[in-house]
Model the fold of this input.
Amino acid sequence: MADTLAYLPFVLRGIYVTVALSVCSLLAATVLGLLGAWAKSSAFSVARRAAETYTTLVRGIPDLVLMLLLYYGGQAVVNRIGDVTGLWKRMDLDPFTVAVAAIGVIFGSYMTETFRGAYLSIPRGQGEAGKALGLSRWLLFRLVIWPQLVRYALPSFTNNWLSLMKTTALASVMGLEDIVNKANAAGRTTHQPFSFIFIVLLVYLALTALSDVGLGMLAKRLRASGRA
Done:
């Protein structure tokens, strides 16, 4: 028990990395999801095929496998370019950056379907009415499409966010010093792995519970504003 309390501050310092990774990955996934939804709804067949290939391919690869492919494969590609061009000798990729890219790509495929489904839920007549009133494409999107897109997408967006947050635990295999990595290190040092992993469990439960409550309140607010 004394060892657990002594290493507790060390382990809890990893929360910052975990939360930062979750938020940055969510931003990347949201951007990719919006682009993917636009591409799937595009009149251009090339864009539709590219988005379909992206979502199908990424959802068919295990998350951990894709992370490791990007980490080790990216490392090899970057160093190969350095060898060929002579611009650098050796470059080690930052695990945090690779993790953000990998998780963003993974959940961008799910966000694509989230935003596409939300867009298809918006009555088509509202867009036509906006055009009839002379609204520009930007104003039509900002005043008519976007508010409803957020409201329809939020339930699925919340599920994706909760899953994304839990997926960040996989980034510890790349050496990222998140809470899982620090808990494993403390467990090996004290020979009490269960105690520290249980602490990680409690932290993730707290983070997901807070997120669920916060996003649930936002959903209620959006539903209320939609009825007004």
Notes: The two ends are 55 Å apart (CA to CA).
